[in-house]
């Protein structure tokens, strides 16, 4: 299965907590090697913008 990862899953990597997400959720998702994971360049841009605001 192909899965597109939203930028909110990356936020804990830059120390922005999300109340309903466990801190290691992205690692848990990526450890399941039976799926293909993708992300958008726009998600990385959004992540960078959020990181600069902190």
DSSP summary, beta strand count: 2
Averaged pLDDT: 85
Write down the domain tally. Answer: 1
Broad structural category: alpha+beta
Envelope shape? flat
Major beta sheet, strand line-up: 1-2
Strand/helix succession = EHEH
Based on CA atoms alone, the radius of gyration comes out at: 12 Å
* Straight-line distance between termini: 34 Å
Observed structural traits:
54 residues; two-stranded parallel sheet; 2 helices
Explained architecture:
By secondary structure, the protein is of the alpha+beta class. The chain has one domain (2-53). The protein is built from 2 helices and 2 strands, in the order E-H-E-H. It has helices at residues 25-30, 41-53; strands at 2-5, 36-39. Strands 1-2 form a two-stranded parallel ribbon. Strand 1, helix 1 and strand 2 form a beta-alpha-beta unit. It is flat and about 35 Å long. The N and C termini lie far apart (34 Å). The model has no long low-confidence stretch (mean pLDDT 85).
Quick overview:
This protein has 54 residues and is an alpha+beta fold. Helix content is 35%, strand content 15%. It has helices at 25-30, 41-53; strands at residues 2-5, 36-39.
What is the topology?
Elements: E1 2-5, H1 25-30, E2 36-39, H2 41-53
Parallel strand pairs: 1-2
